[in-house]
Design goal:
The protein is of the alpha+beta class. The longest helix has 11 residues. The chain has one domain: Jelly Rolls (Sandwich), CATH 2.60.120. It has four helices and eleven strands. Strands 1, 2, 3, 4, 6, 7, 8, 9 and 10 form a nine-stranded antiparallel beta sheet that branches. It has a two-stranded antiparallel sheet with strand order 5-11.
Length: 184
Amino acid sequence: MSRLRIYDETHPATPASVHTAPAEIARELGRAGVRFEQWGASAPIAPGASQEDVIAAYRSDIDRLMREEGYQSVDVISLAPDHPDRAVLRQKFLSEHTHSEDEVRFFVAGSGQFTLHIGGKVYDVLCEAGDLIGVPDGTPHWFDMSEAPYFVAIRLFTNKEGWVANFTGADIAERFPRMEPAAR
């Protein structure tokens, strides 16, 4: 189940509010300038589906976002718990960072945890299959995929080469909850 926990940045032990209804999550994140949507596939997606098949199943929503936001490219990323570099890949984005372009992810399968640091608040968003999150460029955030990552995600880019993490040097991400491995 998708979940949004909102914390005061100085109180990482207890969230000020918790939301699980998609409309509430979208409303709360929208107030902070973050896009949250839920999409449905136009065709069934089989395990091991090609990148082309995954993109084709969500083509109308992808095209809509590309028109609205000017994204130029799309791809699919997939990570399983047995990936040999899972620990290195996880560690790569666990510290607070920003990007010079939006970070847009749609979860086709599995889950991931985006945590955003905006205006004295921390927005901890557990994204599940069917969820799209659009983190605006320049927004401090971090991403966790758990110790046993499992997800398939569509990524949209304005400029794939420009998507680089710029680390803030802050230790805030170390004080907030990490993602627990999903039970499957």
